[in-house]
């Protein structure tokens, strides 16, 4: 692709160059001004106004954000004299399982009106004799009560109440009007679009002028016949294709799926799970692309295709452009394929931005290398544009600027070689190029909205400080977590060793690599690792940003430290082998672990580090490797002590490169083949592969296709063979249903219950549900009996509250419970055994049904539509699809202190949780279906929505976070 770093000096610049330089100056200045003006430009903002009167009855107005911009309550003395609660903006009797919100409550009693707002008692208002008009207003500046137009109670400061609805003890004489906070619900205005158009045209003109300033290029952009496929390309494409089907999901696929799929109904890319649904801007432009992609299909197969295509493009740039730049010695296609797979498999498949960043960083590095090789300025500007766009993807996208730091010296020489009259134009061009990313960062948001969203995120938290970067590496070395999985360790640890090895080898002599490009590549990777400290979270997933350049470093490291030249340098060989053994052992100590559904059917060998005959392979490698290293060290020390020349390393001793190559091959094969094996063995249950097959067969509803729901736990109680079935019968609350059961107290044995035919066949488990906690000494066990009444198996039940599922052993015909416990204190309750009566989830929630999709599972339910958050309010859903009972991570969506968008609707409903049963694995709690039943009949207030144009700096108060933002 590129010529050597040194090329023929340029010809003296002609007078036309100065005119072109002035054009660069003017166009760069216009592009820069457009980038500065763009966030300040006006936007079209929705204005949603809600109105309610007591005659309508209780109403649902679950605002999001929780407080309105302004609120007005009108009533009169006649209504107040009836007493009771005139108005409450939160339910009078909320579900005790929901986290409370501090609303407004007007209560009349004994000739006084008490006012409580945002958790503050504002004091009483004395009611005059006779008729009167009472008006309460609340906005970010003050809350005020007026009687017949005269202020009688004024409190300065922000005391706006949270609003979930409107509730009153009276049916007349009270009205509420409010304007919802829609500061984030904005679209681009014509003026803002015009500024963007001017900025883009000026940027393109600037790039054209730079190309003219550079003069014609005689260097090919791509090598000859680059488009011809090779066997290694087919292998990489096959790997990407197989991984696309069987590969694991990432921990955030559900999170991102919920965000991008809500884009259409919400009108902007907001965080529908926390942070008050604040926009993801300034790091969200690829979410808009993903949303457009999801309009075709939200199936897992379709949604994971972009990452696979990005992988193909990355491979082509790596193999056709970057590796040739490193020199002929780096032309090792199969080694490159191994390096690429090492990085791509554990990090890049899914909806996260890492594959985008990896491609962007690789493209920037290639642009910098072309600039250095051809002494042209246009590649520098293009690289800066790409670096800015990559940064606009995610905070980790800052790594895209590291190639400029690594090549700072040759780039500075390139600029200094230009005439002095060109310096200012080039400086402005260097600013305007990355500043163009602003057009992506705030394409449909105002500057004020982005600043408020940033404030809310920082207030609620969720990240850690830069100086806690060590946590990322602690997670990488955590043994039993997917954060430190074997594949992630392999990519990062071996690449770091390779980068250091390249720099050391280049200083010591000839390596077969092009010194400048190889050193800049290695420095870019190490700088990128340092830049990752700027990311607000410290997950190991972010290492995927290095996926393209990391693979190139692996190839360069193998070339630089190939074993043959080292054998004549025993000390260097010994040190390199020791480092390889140490790194390889740390890699092999990791688990082959994957998050969520991808880890459901992990083979036994994946629940432990790789082992041979019960001994960890990591231990075998470190013992054997260090023994070899010790022998080599003794040889070196002995030779030096005797003043003899150090003997060459024997050919039979493996070098560091073969050792690490074997480790990488084994790790890659373990990851891919284990999930391929799971796909085959569990094809009748749910895997990403079975999901893909079902999608191709016309059933694209994902996990929903393989789940059945127990809608009525009481309906499946087993028939008792003897009477009475149980002494001291109690009822147990099972997801809102009352089911017959017994207390775990005293000593008792239930009757034998006949197993259902499906239970005798092993298709359905025997299920009991416990409520409360077993006390020390309590005994609860399930006994299975044969046809003659003999006990064939005993299962102790020691679980906490929830469903207990047990498959009946072969030959069992019946089941009973045996109980022994103290007769004092709070006893746990347990239902009688049942065979769940199931309804297919696709029948209960047909395709297109709306539900709140909790983020851990949202990606797996593509046929369900996310409940909208629009017009300043969250939807009052009928259904919620939740993760397994032991996973409470989805609770942030309903928690005010996390800015949960559905905290207000949760106050209005009672939850009825329904267990699900997975085809092929009925013991697994794969997800829960939760029905939201309104606690009382509610009308849904419909807003009057208009549009207004607001400047980019306009703001009205702030979006308050309960418990974190001060009130008043």
TrEMBL record:
UniProt cross-references to Gene3D superfamilies, sorted A to Z: 3.40.190.160, arabinofuranosyltransferase like domain
GO molecular function list: arabinosyltransferase activity
Keyword Transferase listed: yes
Residues spanning the membrane: 21-41, 193-211, 232-251, 292-318, 356-373, 379-412, 486-506, 518-537, 543-561, 573-594, 614-637, 657-676
Keyword match Hydrolase: no
Location within or outside the cell: Cell membrane
UniProt keyword annotations, A-Z: Cell membrane, Cell wall biogenesis/degradation, Glycosyltransferase, Membrane, Transferase, Transmembrane, Transmembrane helix
GO cellular component: plasma membrane
Pfam families documented for this protein: Arabino_trans_C, Arabino_trans_N, Arabinose_trans
Residue ranges annotated for the Arabinosyltransferas concanavalin like domain, each copy included: 45-182
Residues annotated as domain Arabinosyltransferase C-terminal: 672-721, 742-959
Record-level GO BP terms: Actinobacterium-type cell wall biogenesis; cell wall organization
Membrane association type: Multi-pass membrane protein
Domain Arabinofuranosyltransferase central: 189-633
Free-text function comment from the UniProt entry: Arabinosyl transferase responsible for the polymerization of arabinose into the arabinan of arabinogalactan.
Similarity comment: Belongs to the emb family.
Protein name, UniProt field: Arabinosyltransferase
Organism: Pseudonocardia broussonetiae
């Amino acid at each position: 692709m590129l010529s050597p770093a040194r090329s023929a000096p340029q010809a003296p610049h002609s007078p036309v160059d100065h005119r072109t330089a002035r054009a660069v100056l003017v166009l760069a200045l216009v592009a820069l001004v457009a980038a500065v003006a763009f966030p300040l430009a006006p936007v079209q903002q929705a204005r949603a106004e809600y109105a309610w009167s007591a005659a309508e009855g209780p109403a649902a107005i679950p605002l999001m954000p929780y407080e309105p911009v302004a609120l007005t309550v009108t009533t009169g003395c006649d209504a107040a004299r009836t007493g009771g609660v005139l108005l409450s903006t939160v339910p009078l009797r909320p579900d005790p399982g929901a986290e409370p919100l501090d609303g407004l409550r007007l209560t009349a009693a004994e000739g006084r009106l008490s006012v409580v707002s945002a958790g503050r008692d504002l004091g009483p208002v004395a009611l005059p004799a006779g008729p009167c008009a009472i008006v309460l207003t609340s906005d970010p500046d003050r809350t005020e009560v007026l009687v017949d137009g005269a202020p009688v109670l004024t409190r300065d400061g922000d005391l706006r109440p949270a609003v979930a609805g409107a509730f009153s003890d009276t049916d007349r004489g009270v009205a509420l009007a409010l304007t919802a906070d829609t500061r984030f619900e904005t679209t681009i205005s014509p003026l803002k679009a015009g500024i963007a158009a001017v900025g883009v045209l000026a940027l393109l003109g600037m790039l054209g002028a730079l190309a003219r300033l550079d003069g014609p290029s005689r260097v090919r952009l791509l090598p000859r016949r680059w488009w011809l496929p090779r066997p290694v390309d087919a292998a990489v494409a096959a790997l990407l294709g197989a991984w696309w089907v069987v590969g694991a999901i990432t921990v955030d696929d559900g999170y991102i799926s919920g965000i991008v799929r809500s884009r259409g109904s919400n009108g902007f890319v907001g965080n529908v799970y926390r942070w008050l649904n604040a926009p993801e801007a300034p790091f969200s432009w690829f979410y808009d692309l993903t949303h457009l992609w999801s309009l075709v299909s939200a199936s897992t197969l379709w949604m994971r295709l972009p990452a696979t295509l990005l992988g193909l493009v990355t491979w082509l740039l790596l193999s056709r452009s970057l590796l040739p730049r490193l020199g002929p010695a780096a032309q090792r296609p199969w080694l490159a394929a191994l390096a690429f797979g090492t990085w791509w498999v554990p990090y890049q498949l899914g909806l996260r931005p890492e594959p985008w960043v990896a491609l962007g960083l690789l493209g920037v590095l290639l642009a910098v290398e072309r600039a250095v090789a051809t002494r042209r300025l246009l590649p520098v500007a293009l690289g800066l544009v790409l670096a800015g766009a990559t940064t606009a993807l995610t905070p980790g996208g800052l790594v895209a600027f590291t190639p400029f730091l690594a090549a700072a010296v040759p780039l500075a020489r390139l600029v200094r070689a230009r005439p002095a009259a060109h310096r200012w134009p080039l400086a402005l061009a260097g600013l305007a190029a990355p500043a163009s990313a602003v057009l992506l960062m705030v394409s449909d948001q105002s500057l004020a909205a982005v600043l408020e969203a940033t404030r809310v995120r920082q207030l609620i938290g969720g990240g850690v400080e830069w100086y806690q970067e060590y946590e990322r590496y602690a997670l990488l070395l955590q043994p039993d977590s997917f954060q430190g999985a074997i594949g992630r360790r392999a990519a990062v640890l071996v690449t770091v060793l390779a980068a250091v090895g390249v720099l050391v080898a280049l200083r010591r002599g000839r390596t077969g690599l092009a010194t400048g490009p190889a050193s800049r590549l290695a420095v870019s990777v190490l700088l990128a690792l340092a830049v990752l400290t700027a990311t607000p979270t410290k997950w190991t997933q972010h290492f995927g940003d290095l996926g393209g350049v990391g693979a190139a470093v692996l190839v360069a490291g193998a070339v630089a430290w190939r074993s043959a030249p080292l054998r004549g340098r025993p000390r260097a060989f010994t040190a390199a082998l020791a480092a390889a053994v140490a790194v390889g052992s740390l890699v092999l100590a990791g688990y082959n672990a994957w998050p969520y559904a991808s880890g459901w059917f992990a083979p036994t060998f994946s629940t432990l580090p790789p082992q041979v005959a019960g001994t960890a392979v990591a231990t075998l490698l470190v013992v054997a490797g260090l023994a070899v290293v010790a022998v080599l060290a003794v040889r070196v020390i002995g030779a030096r002590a005797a003043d003899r020349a150090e003997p060459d390393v024997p050919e039979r001793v493996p070098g560091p490169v073969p050792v690490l190559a074997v480790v990488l091959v084994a790790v890659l094969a373990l990851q891919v083949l284990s999930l391929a094996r799971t796909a085959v063995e569990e094809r009748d249950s749910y895997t990403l592969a079975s999901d893909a097959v079902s999608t191709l067969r016309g059933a694209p509803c994902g996990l929903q296709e393989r789940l059945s729901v127990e809608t009525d736990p009481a309906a499946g109680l087993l028939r008792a063979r003897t009477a009475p079935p149980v002494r001291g019968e109690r009822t147990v609350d099972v997801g809102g249903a009352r089911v017959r059961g017994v207390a775990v107290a005293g000593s008792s044995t239930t009757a034998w219950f006949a197993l259902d035919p499906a239970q005798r066949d092993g298709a359905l488990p025997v299920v009991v549900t416990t409520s409360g906690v077993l006390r020390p000494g309590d005994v609860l066990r399930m006994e299975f009996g044969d046809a003659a009444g003999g006990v064939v198996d005993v299962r102790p039940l020691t679980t906490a509250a929830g469903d207990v599922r047990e498959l009946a052993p072969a030959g069992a015909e019946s089941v009973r419970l045996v109980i022994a416990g103290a007769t004092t204190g709070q006893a746990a309750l347990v239902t009688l055994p049942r065979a769940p009566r199931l309804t297919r989830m696709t029948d209960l929630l047909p395709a297109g049904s709306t539900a709140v999709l909790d983020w851990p599972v949202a990606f797996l339910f593509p046929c369900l539509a996310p409940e909208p958050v629009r017009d300043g309010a969250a939807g009052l859903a009928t259904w919620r699809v939740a993760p397994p009972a032991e996973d409470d991570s989805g609770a942030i969506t309903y928690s005010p202190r996390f800015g949960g968008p559905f905290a207000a609707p949760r106050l209005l409903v009672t939850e009825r949780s329904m267990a699900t049963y997975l085809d092929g694995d009925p013991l697994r709690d794969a997800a829960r279906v939760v029905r939201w039943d309104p606690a009382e009949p509610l009308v849904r207030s419909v807003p009057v929505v208009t549009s207004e144009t607001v400047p980019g700096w306009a703001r009205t108060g702030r979006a308050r976070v309960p418990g974190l933002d001060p009130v008043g």
